[in-house]
Write a structure and sequence with these properties.
elongated; four-stranded antiparallel beta sheet; alpha+beta; 4 strands
Length: 305
């Protein structure tokens, strides 16, 4: 039986996921369509299939709008299976919600109403300048994905694969998404022209960098803390990050005072909290932070379910 606070937290989470889905849906129907871009992964493949089917329907005189949502859901079947099997059921169900809602809202978004509130000169510039379209579109899409990830969900497709590899290999894999999207870009280039594929690469690079900036779970940092209170500092690190630490006896070179060097590797999201707590324990503590590209060995990751 869930408490009221847990129910409120769940409701808030799904409200945020709905908002993130709306952000991505708006991006699909505006920047992506204006620039004839391909987001990559299952979403990009779904758009490619949708555009091919729409072209066929138009050529034979069928005046119907091919929906995006069912194609996107179908192409996410294998990534969702990977999520259920290897990542976590709750995470995958929440991701399914985002996959369905973003596609459903994309089919409902009134593009004409959106375009009517944008000044005509600005709208014409966005629709005619593919660089601006890919740049702003990537920022908006990256914001939507990062928002979903922070609520323990994803937009599906290659995100599932990236998270699976991150947890198995102990390193960031977001840049590998560019490699997974190569097939989509090649197919999009053959269909819509290589200019469209080029600007799609810019779009994908921008959104990956936005995700990298906003979502730091798989970024690691090594903390080297020089303190006179090593036991309390180690307890603080464990309390926040659930990671242990190594204590090395040392001595200051200037005054010859006995010091302890506490070393620990933690997730980048935890560092600011650790800084504050360590400084409250030892105001004279010296903290050095080093970016860590890869961790091999036992490293705690928060469970997704």
């Amino acid at each position: 039986m869930k408490s009221k606070s847990q129910i409120k937290a769940e409701v808030f989470k799904y409200l945020v996921l709905t908002f993130a889905s709306l952000v991505m849906a708006l991006d699909y129907r505006t920047f992506v369509e204006w620039g004839n871009l391909y987001p990559g992964g299952a979403v990009g493949m779904a758009m490619l299939v949708q555009r091919v089917m729409q072209s066929i329907c138009d050529s034979i005189g069928w005046h119907v709008m091919v929906p995006f949502s069912p194609i996107n859901v179908a192409l996410n079947a294998i990534p969702v299976w990977i999520g259920f099997k290897y990542i976590g059921r709750k995470f995958t169900l929440q991701s399914l919600y985002v996959i369905f809602m973003s596609g459903f809202l994309a089919d409902l978004v009134p593009v004409g109403a959106i375009e009517s509130v944008i000044p005509a000169a600005d709208l014409a510039r966005l629709q005619s300048d593919p660089f601006l379209t890919s740049l702003f579109g990537g920022i908006v899409f990256g914001f939507g994905i990062a928002l979903s990830l922070r609520c323990n969900a994803t937009s599906g497709g290659t995100d599932f694969i990236a998270i699976y590899l991150s947890e198995k290999k102990g390193r960031e894999t977001w840049n590998l998404i560019l490699a997974f999207n190569a097939v989509v870009l090649l197919l999009g280039g053959f269909m819509s022209g290589w200019t469209s594929a080029l600007y799609s690469i810019i779009y994908q690079f921008v959104y990956i960098q936005v995700v990298h900036l906003m979502y730091r779970t798989y970024q690691y940092q090594t903390l080297i803390i020089i303190t006179t209170k090593p036991k309390k500092v180690c307890e603080a690190i464990y309390r926040i990050s659930h990671h242990g630490a190594t204590v090395i006896d040392g001595r200051g070179a200037f005054k010859g005072e006995a010091k302890s060097v506490v070393m620990s590797v933690v997730a980048a999201d935890d560092t600011s909290h650790i800084y504050a707590l360590c400084k409250s324990i030892d105001a004279d503590a010296f903290i050095n932070t080093i970016s860590t590209s890869r961790v091999i060995g036992r490293f705690y990751l928060r469970p997704r379910d």
